Amino acid sequence: MSGSSVEPELPCDACGQTDRENVMVLCDGCKHGLHIDCLGPPLPAVPEGYWLCDACTSPTCRDITEDRVTLQFLATSKFPAAADKREKSRIRARANRVSLIDGQLLHTQTGKPVPAIADRVWHIQDCHGIGHFGIAKTLHITQNHFWWRGMTE
User: Fold this and answer.
1) Where does the pLDDT of residue 36 fall: very low under 50, low under 70, confident under 90, or very high at 90 and above?
2) Residue 19: is its pLDDT beyond 70?
3) Are the C-beta atoms of 140 and 151 separated by less than 8 Å?
4) Is 130 exposed, middle or buried (0-12, 13-18, 19+ CB in 10 A)?
């Protein structure tokens, strides 16, 4: 097992089972557990040392509000102890795009707040509810107040 030790009864994020701890890996980013044969593609063995799941290593797939490793870096200015050069570079690159001020995540270029994924639908509905505008106008109003990657119609 890599990273932190797997907690007893930690379920696999993929299959939900709590058995087979000897083939369970724990992501050092999100702290979720996965059986090596539940990963896609499966790993041949439990990796040694620092390990991150696909969700924590793919900046294009992982929303910044869910990138716990980068958020921790923004809060503390410290890299995870076992982070290698590549991981530090990834964290630094993502951290340069946002800032954390008084607990609020802000987009560096625009200064606009970056809401959590769960809050985005509410913000869009709130903007739309101002005047029951169409998609383009609702998007425009939302973009004037918030920023998140992939803001499109």
Assistant:
1) very high
2) yes
3) no
4) exposed
| pLDDT of the residue at 9 | 76
DSSP letter for each residue of 100-145:
EETTEEEETTT--B---HHHHHHHHHHHHHTTT--HHHHHHHHHHH
Cβ pair 121, 87 in contact under 8 A: no
Determine the Cα–Cα distance for residues 43 and 150; give it in Å rounded to an integer: 31
CATH number for 21-96 (one of 3.90.1150.10, 3.40.50.300, 3.30.420.240, 3.30.40.10): it is 3.30.40.10
Residue 4 reports pLDDT greater than 50:
no
Backbone angles phi, psi at 35, to 5 degrees: -70, 140
Distance CA 32, CA 147 (A): 28
pTM value surpassing 0.85: no
Separation in Å, CA 34 to CA 11, 18, 114, 137:
8, 10, 29, 43
pLDDT of residue 73: 93
